[in-house]
Amino acid sequence: MNNKKIFLLLFIFILIGLTTNEYLPETNNKGQEIFTKILSGENGLFNPDFSIYQNVAKGLLESFQIALIGTVFAGFFSLILGILAAENTSPKPVSGFIKFTLNAIRTIPEILLAIIFIVGVGPGAFAGILALGFHSTGTLSKLTAEVTESINKGPIEAVLAVGGSQISVFRYSALPQIMPEFVSILLYRFEINIRAASVLGMVGAGGIGKTLFFALMARNWSHVGTILIGIIIVVTLVDYISGRIRSNLV
Amino acid sequence: MKPFLKIENISKKYPNSKKHALFDFDLNIFPGEIIAVVGKSGSGKSTFLRCVNGLTKTSSGNIYFKEKNTKSMSSKEYRKYRTNIGFIFQNYNLQNRISVLDNVLTGLLGQRNPLMTTFGLWSKQDKEKGKSILVEMGLGQHVNKRADQLSGGEKQRVSIARALIQNPKIILADEPVASLDPPTAKKILDDLKAKCKKRKIAVVINLHDVEMALRYSDRIVGLRNGEKVWDSPSSEATEESFKQIYQKDE
């Protein structure tokens, strides 16, 4: 397809979008009223109830732990799978097979994995860890494979030239080249997993999501507000710290 | 005196290339001699050196080390053969993220127990030897620095130290000073020559600079379009011989 056709298609889509109002909700004042109440009412989002801080802290800690353990678990497997999936360190059929499998894993969303694991191991943090670990292994392995494929061949030849074995090549040349970028993407994945872990509880996979879910069900907006503040603080802190570490790595 | 390394009719043709990079090349190398290989870029100098230690596979021909055909060696024997050969690369090929001393120690990877070296365990003697060679190369104050903190000239000195610690029979140097400024280049070649003469290590050095080749070698070999067109003691090389090596292709 050439550019012209793409533009024409886009144009048609936009036209259809503009002329269809099927999806626009009918506006009425009642909706606005409810919305204002949710936000700034006596029991609204902007009037957080800090008396539940202990519950929130406990939930946040659990989410943090789920993300941490899930990421470490994924890191371990993706270092192995990533190197096995890289075309320059592994035979073509092996690399192809692993890449295909990883792609398949990656397409399943965490939340779906969480539901599947809950059926398997029961509701709770463990299901969350497995869901995050599994999904992250998919993404991290792919990135690790890409890092491995981009390493400089020169230092590898230097080890081969002195009579070094494959294991020496890996230890003294490949690993030092892969490690900084690997740790960097691992930390980045941890940031993503912290956010994902806060939602996982909503399907029963442990963490702050559970508390959030109950507050939402009870329409207790001031509790929801407190929980959101907690999540924002933790996510921002983790982002900031891991960002600082990452910028010092490479 | 008998040659310890005999190169017999080796040819190399790269896939996707019509011409031979190296064609029917012969060379006998005697202990302790310094051979300069000269020729235009693309004349096959690098290919020749890389074929000698197997970083590039020959298409045909044989290489004998102490009368043993390298083709009949098992992969373990071949790694042992490689420990006799130091290789110096144009762009140093150091392991950037580890210390200068560790880089020098990688020269011993083919000669030490891979299990020990994989855990970074080097004997005290090895470390002392590494340090003393670094001092000899004028890098005493850089022992614990990270390799990527050094200047180009210093990096090449580290890579010479890495070759010397192997205690090799021969050092192959592929355009070792092509990326360095002339005064630094001169100092490094002076050092390389002195250290190798002292230890009676043979050197095969690729150079495109004729004056340098004359100054540092006992014997000059000229390559043109992958074929040997000159082989004589440096004292017998004349302007005519260099014309033959560097003349334009018809």
Short description, anyone?
Chain A is mostly helical.
By helix and strand content of chain B, what is the structural category? alpha/beta
Overall number of structural domains of chain A: 1
Which spans of chain B of ≥5 residues are poorly predicted at pLDDT below 50?
Answer: none
Order of helices and strands of chain B: EEEHEEHEHHHHEHEHEEH
Strand content of chain B: 15-25%
What key phrases describe this protein's structure?
heterodimer; A: 250 residues; mainly alpha; MetI-like fold; globular; B: 250 residues; alpha/beta; Rossmann fold; 2 domains; six-stranded mixed sheet; four-stranded antiparallel sheet; 9 helices; 35% helix
Describe it.
With 250 residues, chain A is mostly helical. Chain A has helices at 3-19, 29-40, 53-85, 92-107, 110-121, 125-149, 153-161, 166-200, 208-217, 221-249. Chain A has ten helices and no strands. The longest helix of chain A is centred in the last third of the chain and has 35 residues, at 166-200. Chain B is an alpha/beta fold and 250 residues long. Chain B has helices spanning 45-52, 75-83, 100-105, 114-118, 124-136, 152-165, 182-199, 210-216, 239-246, and strands at 5-12, 22-29, 34-38, 60-65, 68-69, 85-88, 170-174, 202-207, 219-224, 227-233. Chain B has a six-stranded mixed sheet, sandwiched between helices. The longest helix of chain B has 18 residues, at 182-199. At the A-B interface, helix 7 and helix 8 of A face helix 2, strand 6 and helix 4 of B.
